[in-house]
Amino acid sequence: MKFVEGATVGIDLGTTYSAVAALSADGEPYVIKTPEGRAITPSVVLLDDERVVVGPSFERIAIAEPDSIVEAIKREMGNPQFYTVYQNKKLSPEFISALILKKMKQDAEKVIGPIANAVITVPYYFNDVRRKSTQDAGKIAGLNVVDIINEPTAATLAYAWNRNEFGRTDLNMAEKTIMVYDLGGGTFDVTVVRYTPTTFRVLATDGDVMLGGLDWSKRLADHLVEQFRQKFGKDPSESAESLRTIQQSAEDAKRDLSEQLQTTIEVYHAGDRMRVAVSRTDFERMTADLLQRTKDTTELVLQQSGVKAEELDEVVLVGGSTYMPVIEQMLREICNKEPSRELKPESAVAEGAAIHAAILQARHGVNSGDVSALQKRLMSVKTIDVNSHSLGIKITDPNDRSRKINHVMIPRNTPVPHDVSQRFGTNSAGQARIHVEILEGDAVDPAACELIGDFRIYDLPSDLPKGSPVQITYSYDSAGRINATAKEMTGNKEASAEIVRSGGMDESQISSALDTISSEYEIE
Fold first, then answer.
1. Averaged pLDDT, 370-382
2. For residues 304 and 206, is the Cβ–Cβ distance under 8 A?
3. Is 213-286 in CATH node 3.90.640.10?
């Protein structure tokens, strides 16, 4: 496989597994295998006494101290309260994710040569803080993150590109409308997309960053613990080692039940053992509420997109958890069509990210001279995404001045990039400063929204009357990142400070973490 020198890679940074891909010189997206020959890397970090091990085998995990293992770190991205202590240092979620990214970078460079630039995927429903944290993790890993792309968008790029439809200006193809159902290890998205060979437009999206295959496995693990407790009067969950073994057995059994109608699981704890028979029907019954959550979201997105189920050309499955037969059955009932397994659920997102990376590289890397047919094809594709969260500002309720409300300025599912300006009035006469609080969410009550950051304008003109105009400008860029400015119109004074976000890292913290990961950690 030949790659373009200096290719920008696409990275699917997953909750349970991650993958890196690049577009070959002949236009084929290729997932780069690890030195062990695997297409995916477990998103598990073992903080050993001497070195950091990314993606260790289960045999190695089984003999490790439970508190030395970090899993599902993606669910903690942007959480300033979460950290892991290693060698007397507090490691943030961004740092742990950077260890995974750096390992994949090292492995990929053995195949395609030096890597500098990368596109990293995120769930559509990641908010601004989580997106910035993902970018920060890439920087700490030594990558120049040229873009963040939504996972369903990447999957759709892979779907249409692999069907030889995207970038084909010679095709006279009518618009196609597809739904991407993406159920990964730890996150869930469903997205409706409309595309032609040269345009790509997201109509609606929704999801849950705390719902994925891990939750199905946990239900089964909880069932095993309860069965053992009832039989022996002992609680395996009180032993970290026993619980880890049970969780791994539950994960294996979940996969078995995707292929067979029944499986038997052995549970060991404190000298006792038992065998538990679990049928696919049992498993589906104990996880029915999880499935219902994805069904409700799917029906909501169809409604918000304005597309009827019978109008969909395809329902595309993405994410390893879609191998569960009940997922196909549910989607078949909603959409009255057979879901497509044209893509490999584990690698589709990384492949799509690699295609997007190649599109960016083609657009910005061609200055003069001949343009290849592949570059022309890549440059002809235009994508239009939407924002997954409404963006608002905390204001005084004009109907009840004793309370604050969330005033939505950019509704969710608005095409991005997008910016909007609105004027508000100062709350009191002689007001000396303006405090702008940026909210994500649709609820009227600010407490039910997420405060993602704030900024201030100081030293307003003296004797400023109450109700003096202030112009607020909000914008979403194509990567789903937020910018905001405020301008006091009487004195023409504008906020100069950047948004102080409630989560994530500043540049000095990122630089320090980059130095640390480069000089102090040997990653295996």
1. 77
2. yes
3. yes
The Cα–Cα gap between 157 and 21 comes to: 13
- Which residues 6+ apart lie within 8 Å of 503 measured at CB? 78, 79, 80, 129, 130, 132, 133, 452
Task: Report whether 232 contacts 272 (CB < 8 A).
Answer: yes
> Kind of pairing, strands 500-501 and 391-396?
unpaired
- Residues 274-286 pLDDT 10s: 999 999 999 999 9
**What secondary structure letter does DSSP report for 489?**
T
1-163+343-386+504-524 has which fold?
Answer: Nucleotidyltransferase; domain 5 (3.30.420)
* Full DSSP string of 130-176: HHHHHHHHHHHTT-EEEEEEEHHHHHHHHHHHHTT-TT-TT-----E
Question: If residue 384 lies in a helix (H) or strand (E), which one and from where to where?
Answer: strand 382-386
Do 387-491 and 1-163+343-386+504-524 fall under one CATH topology? no
Q: What is the pLDDT of residues 445-463, one digit of tens each?
A: 999 998 888 888 888 888 8
CA distance 119 to 189: 19
User: How do the domains of the chain map onto residue ranges?
Assistant: 1-163+343-386+504-524, 213-286, 387-491
Among candidate residues 451, 432, 445, 499, the one with its CA nearest the CA of residue 472: 499
pLDDT in tens, 217-259: 999 999 999 999 999 999 999 998 899 999 999 999 999 999 9
CATH classification of 387-491 is 2.30.110.10, yes or no? no
Q: What angle do CA 130, 118, 94 make, to 5 degrees?
A: 35
pTM over 0.70: yes
| CB-CB contact of 514 with 142 (8 Å) | yes
